[in-house]
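Hi F.,

I've been meaning to write this up properly since the lab meeting, where we talked about keeping a consistent format for the predictions we share between groups. The idea is simple: the sequence comes first, exactly as it goes in, then the structure tokens exactly as they come out, then a line or two of notes. No screenshots and no reformatting. I'm using this chain as the first example so we have something concrete to point to.
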Amino acid sequence: MSTPTMSTSAVDVNSRGRSHPVLSRILREPLLGPLVALVLAIIIFSVISDTFLNPTNVSLILQQSVVVGILAVGQTLIILTSGIDLSIGAVAVLGTIVMAQTAGANGPFVALFATFGVCVVLGALNGGLVTALRLPPFIVTLGTFTAIQAATRLLAGSQTYQVPNGPLTFLGTSFRVGAFSTTYGVVAMLLVYAVVWYALSQTAWGKHVYAVGGNITASKLSGIKSERNLFSVYIVAGVIAAIGAWAALGRIPNADPNAYQNANLETITAVVIGGTSLFGGRGGVIGTLIGTLIVGVLRNGLTQAGVDSLYQNIATGILVIVAVTVDQFARRRSL
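Output, unedited:
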């Protein structure tokens, strides 16, 4: 009687699964890799520097992460739909200029309303070009980034506008929880993450975002109004950009047209490191929060260790490449 044999391909698959259980787990769970990286970074820098885990330094890391952390939520939504937004940082900077200029003549609350209006209109512009004209998001937002950046400098006249303390700088106000001091900007950031997490995980709108990002053709066939859903994502990103502009004036009460020049790339970095797939349909804002904290911890820890900022950029770039590589492996395994 012949002995049953297993096919070579089956043996290879089984052996690979047994040989790399940790890797398989990381590929299956996008949050696991970033979370492990964050914990390791905290442990390493706490060993290198005695002051790294001091409440004051931890608070500083959170405060420094607020603006990019908020904007990264909008970037996450767009990347989940298999798009990308190169203009979200420029929209936020324009928002700070509009806020500062409008407040002088009309007061802070009108200024806030005007800023949210401008940012939503620009989000709608991006969304309209992507959905109505079916243009690639990369090209659309690259074009609007260039135009918005130039318009911001023209509007500001290359000047910096100081904002007086009050409602416009409220998110920079600090408060204490026991021995820990933080700002309302950090609270606002966490609230934005919580609200968007709930929308993505608990509502039909969120499920449609994942469906559109996973396969827009299949989502249409299943009855989802894909263009409307995609357009709404850009609107929400505009709202989030306005919140980021408000938080920016809380961090530094000066509206500077040249501020946050790298915010667009920094948001993409946080999203990618956090495990959200650049191909859409996989990931989420919790990963983005972890990715934002990884970048903040890395920069703060390396600064305390006396590492030059250029080497910090190299380290961040390597992290992005590693994150994209993991995403590619995960995507191939799921096909």
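Notes:
The domain at 32-330 is CATH 1.10.3470 (ABC transporter involved in vitamin B12 uptake, BtuC).
Strands lie at 161-162, 174-177, 180-183, 254-255.

If this format works for you, I'll send the rest the same way.

G.
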